[in-house]
User: Which sequence fits this backbone?
DNA sequence: GTGGTCTAGACCACG
DNA sequence: GTGGTCTAGACCACC
């Protein structure tokens, strides 16, 4: 079964980020492996009924982050994740996201235990890909 | 020492959200307790050098979420958190946040173990309030 | 005939609430159905001769309540109503509204029978949508 | 047992209106009868821990509507409700309140049946006072 | 004094 | 094109 995307219209999360997040998660999960080809910008835009610019934006972000590579005339492919930013810089960006998640969970009336369980469940699907040498 | 805010201008996360997030997190961590008074809209706006409307927007959101209460002529106060969001809506909003966090962590070259540890550490600071009686 | 709005300037009811109330009622009465597009923020602001922010405020409230969905670049659409408010919070907010209505009716010299009849008549127009499938 | 007031701080309903609404409802219910004396502005303000101006505002509104009468040196008393406004004007003011209630109920995810039942329950407590001759 | 509403207009993110 | 954010400043309701 090929990898499929799920788009939620009207979400506060922009569509281009939903697309990119799903690719990132699928790579982390091992559901998308190195050398897998992704749909072309045009094809994916048509399939998801979104603007091609939106798909292009997601692919651009993913390429900049070292997840994918566009090969002229061939298509877009998953590549071994390149390390792109430093440890300290990464942590500096990640920490507020965790803080934001906790704040949001509290606002949504979840308990600490519930959030911990939800995160653990999502994380348990995450397999570190074998050829991430860094 | 009174609770102090830290605003990063030029961040992609809007100022009103930075303010609200810090209050949410401080309540979760027990740094802000029930009946504590927050700075007035005008005072905080002056302190942070932002527009009063921006502070008001943050306070409005927090009040709607059941964290605080605005008392006319008195000011803004932390209250025992009310449950306002339905269960289903809560999950609907929480899940993409977790997916986004994991996606970002992968993009930032963190391993599953590192993210899990970081989240666990942050979560350990979340104190469910000891049945706060006013 | 497209749905039209009626604004009473100088009313004690804020304009953004008048707009939102009319949408809520029209949805309840079946005059606005799922996938109907509302006027854009700018267009409605021009039509009603109010500030775009005022219209945006009404739309934001309606979106948060689960009546409508803003699709970037497309516009604002009626969606199948989502349940967003917890049961307890719902009652907490509804009860004072009913008390206020009865109090106002008494102040306006209506009898119990008159009020009951008026409410029943209005309620009879409230059509639960027939399990709207988009 | 004397009539007692219940004030919800931080409600969207202003305190002066909460006080006035409770008097109106109690008169409609027959819990407050003609010639009953209400607490003085000062006494009630102290009891409810609110600003005396707030109580005075409620009493002023009630007096204007013909519910109560201040007798110099004696105190404040319930009087036979005087008819203050015309039928048409009353209906013109009441209708949007009913519309607003229905819209709010829909926003709070109540069904038509639930709202009808809630209103009926409140209304069933309403006894038209015997000496309302109009 | 407090917060809530509204206007006016700029800038940006998204598609 | 759309809506979301922010600023600036006015006015009002409430206490």
Assistant:
């Amino acid at each position: 079964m090929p990898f499929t995307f799920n788009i939620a219209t009207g979400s506060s999360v922009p569509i281009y980020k939903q697309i990119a997040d799903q690719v990132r998660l699928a790579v982390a999960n091992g559901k998308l492996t190195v050398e897998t080809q992704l749909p072309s910008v045009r094809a994916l835009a048509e399939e998801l009924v979104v603007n091609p610019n939106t798909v292009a934006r997601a692919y651009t972000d993913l390429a900049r982050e070292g997840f994918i590579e566009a090969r002229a005339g061939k298509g877009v492919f998953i590549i071994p994740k390149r390390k792109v930013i430093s440890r300290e810089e990464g942590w500096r960006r990640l920490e507020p996201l965790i803080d934001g998640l906790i704040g949001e969970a509290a606002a949504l009336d979840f308990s600490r235990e519930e959030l911990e369980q939800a995160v653990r469940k999502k994380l348990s699907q995450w397999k570190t890909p074998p050829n991430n040498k860094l």
Notes: Residues 14-16, 50-54, 57 of chain A lie near DNA strand E (CB under 10 Å from a C1').
